[in-house]
Design a protein that fits this description.
Structural class: alpha+beta
Order of helices and strands: HHEEHEEEEHEHEEEEHEHEEEEEEE
Number of helices: 7
Helix content: 10-25%
Distance between the termini: 27 Å
Strand content: 35-45%
Shape: elongated
Radius of gyration: 25 Å
Largest sheet: 4 strands, antiparallel
Strand order of the largest sheet: 13-12-19-18
Number of strands: 19
Length: 334
Amino acid sequence: MSAIPLLMPPPYATAIALLAALLSAPLAAPVSAQDAADANVQNARLMLSTEQIETEFYTPKHTHVHELLRIAERLHGRTFHVEEKGGYSAPPMDNLQLLGDSILIYDEPAYIAKVLKALMLLDRGSAPAEPDVQLSTSHWSPGFISLPTAYEALDPFKRQVTTVDSSGQSQSTRNIAMLENQRVLVLRDTPAQVAQMLELLSVIDRSEPQLMVSAMVIRGEHGAGDGAVPTELAQNLSQLVPYQSFSMEAMGLVRSSARARSIGLRLDETHSLEFEPDAFDEDSLTLSGRCQFKSETGFRFETRTSVSAGEYTVLGVSGELALFVVLRIEPIGG
């Protein structure tokens, strides 16, 4: 189930009891009897077994290993938990790590193949220029990623090339130029280098997964609630905590890229939440990262968590009449 870390001022005995109840059972919207039976298996964080994981090494020939790792982590870095190494109780594993002058890739075979392809393209970009080869020029515009992101991804390819004008005078110039107003990269290099740059750009220029992110602060009630809390969430909570119903205290909704550096939600004048994603798994539709909740009432906490699409994840709970902080994500489009 989703972890429920919180910072809670004493003497909130009721909230402590609620924590114990919530930690003992998963909280997700019921869909079917089979889904309910599998509730303990379907966790909001990416879990892999050692049987699913392989290890590969890549030693760069032309690019500094630290530079190559920095770009690879931005393009293909992700974290996951390993079942045989403590599962969710242990810290998550990074799929890319520095090992001497090599990059260790620790992941599923299909993901390793994708990372290796990008690493080889990036590394070849720093190979020395072939002598006496005529340069070619190509113009490229992004379809999905930003122009600065594409320009940064080509760092290992960047170098000075020599051109000769009509009078026979040679001139040194950069092989990659960014024309921000036109949203164009101008690539000028040997045909082989230009082809490799275009191949790398085609690998990384893909649509960003879009999510609808919602956060709610709901209040436990001993009487009738206000009816604003989603039925499935209220039903699940009522089975776990000693409240007859629930009312909506505050709510926020925002559309965001799954790979955004920060997702901020101002729920009302009192409550705000900021989520900083560090990984999004497109297969399990799981978003992981750091979450920070602030309330002018004094209830604040910061935690790292993972949220699976379609599930209500309780991030924290506090107070004698408990306030629950709940996060939910839904994919948008295909």
